[in-house]
Amino acid sequence: MRLMVLPALAGLFLLAGAAEAAEPPPGASSCTGCHAPMKVADTVIPRIAGRKASDIVQFMREYRSGAWPSSVMGRIAKGFDDAQINAIAAWFAAQPE
Amino acid sequence: MATRRTFLKLGVAAGLAPALAPSIASAQGAGRVVVVGGGFGGATAARTLKALEPRLAVTLVEPNATYTACPFSNNVLANLRSIDRQQFGYDGVTKAGVTVAQRSATAIDASAKSVTLSDGSTLAYDRLVLSPGIDFDWNAIPGYGEAAAQIMPHAWKAGAQTVLLRQQLQSMDDGGVVVIAAPANPYRCPPGPYERASLIAYWLKIWKPKSKLLILDSKDAFSKQRLFQNAWAQLYPGMIDWVPLSKGGKVTSVDPSTLTLVTDFGRHKAAVANVIPPQKAGAIAHQAGVADRTGWCPVEPVAFESTLQPGIHVLGDAAIMGAMPKSAFAANAQAKVCAAAIVDLLAGRKPQDPILINTCYSLVAADYGISVAGVYRPDKGVLADVPGAGGVSPLEVVGGFRGQEALYASSWFRTITAEVYG
Ligand SMILES: Cc1cc2nc3c(=O)[nH]c(=O)nc-3n(C[C@H](O)[C@H](O)[C@H](O)COP(=O)(O)OP(=O)(O)OC[C@H]3O[C@@H](n4cnc5c(N)ncnc54)[C@H](O)[C@@H]3O)c2cc1C
User: Fold this and answer.
1) What was the pLDDT predicted at B30?
2) Which of B19, B73, B159, B402 is the most buried (most CB within 10 A)?
3) What is the ipTM of this complex?
4) pTM as predicted
5) Domain B19-136+280-352: which CATH class?
6) CATH number at B148-277
7) CA B358 → CA A64, B12, B209, distances in Å?
8) Same CATH fold, B148-277 and B19-136+280-352?
């Protein structure tokens, strides 16, 4: 029994580590419906994966306040507070460009 | 913290050390997820599960080798697109490590946690995801059954029905009336009937300009209504007539042999009749016992697990998702949240409270797009609107705003289909 528990234990940490690294913060997985995680030919929606977190944060705040004009991002950004935006921005910044 | 028991389960769930513990793996069978339905919800869930936790065994059950997407199928009616641009295979899903079983699911045993397929084989699961989309309520409109749909197409599941409706439009005489019967809420794609009316009018204006379009509606208000009606007045003056419920819009029966639609207020003879009937969750959801008396599936708002049958998650059109509408965008967003939650649940972790976005673009003309957006989070047991967020495109715009949204709409479609099927 003990022999089997050991690799299983190791598995837990691997699993936890992998899943926590990959799992996006609340809201982020909805962004990728429009902002492709992969390269998409022929899209006019700007890429955000791999962008500087501070840039994403700034865009989101300005969309939210209306300081920066937008077609849809203003309506979306109004659904997120600063902490949520920071987490999402950090996650996208860590994705491959 | 997890107990020693969960450690064991976890190691197996993760598919680790199979050489050391093969008997436990097969005896406990943890880490197997079966997904039924390879549409926007199901295909997204299957891929995301595999991406987040490659050691899960994920099987996608879908009878069709090709999926025909509904978004942008109204463009097919207006000859702005060919139907094959709506079609996607499952190679990308397979390459992502998902096992695709090209079968339909015929029965689900929630207590035995097994799915029976059309070839008689069974699949055991630890967690089941159902995203079977819609079925039509063929008893709702007297006269409108499956045979009638060959004469008065619904075109609400894209494919042969879309092509049939386009053929009928193309062969109709100029000066005829195209009638669209729109259902009461809830139904798949709330702005869809009005986008369809717009794009058919766009096409009629070019090719059959003496023709008219009549919408017989079973409700008194609809999605993006003022944006649509303003655009109709501007682009298609006098062409589109919308009859709400309160003015006799509800179709109470149809006669396919004479292409007649009957309401409490009168009879309408159509040159082409597009009847969009009331809908319910796909049949397998009813068989599984996850649908309630509304015909749809109640779920909790974090992992979208059925409130009627534990271990079964329901996504997309089939589910009751609180304030979220039935759209491809929503099904995709829900699937990504559900997949992450399932990975957590199988690992003994509590899933995080999600935030979801929905956006439905509609085209009023080839280069004229409008949108409705919403942001949602769990509140008192349901997905609710985040106050202050979301809403529709502005009523007054300058310059190329509508053209820009039309470009964003097609960009969205390319992006989401690349994410799901690419
Ligand atoms: C005309 C029209 C326009 C639309 N436009 C838009 C739009 O612009 N934007 C948008 O976001 N949404 C749009 N939609 C809505 C969108 O198509 C749906 O909301 C979306 O497809 C829902 O995804 P789903 O996974 O719930 O179901 P579906 O995409 O219908 O997928 C269900 C899948 O399950 C399979 N299935 C069913 N039963 C079984 C079984 N027993 N065993 C195995 N497989 C099974 C089916 O074969 C199918 O492939 C539109 C819809 C229509 C009709």
Assistant:
1) 53
2) B73
3) 0.91
4) 0.93
5) alpha beta
6) 3.50.50.60
7) 17, 36, 36
8) yes
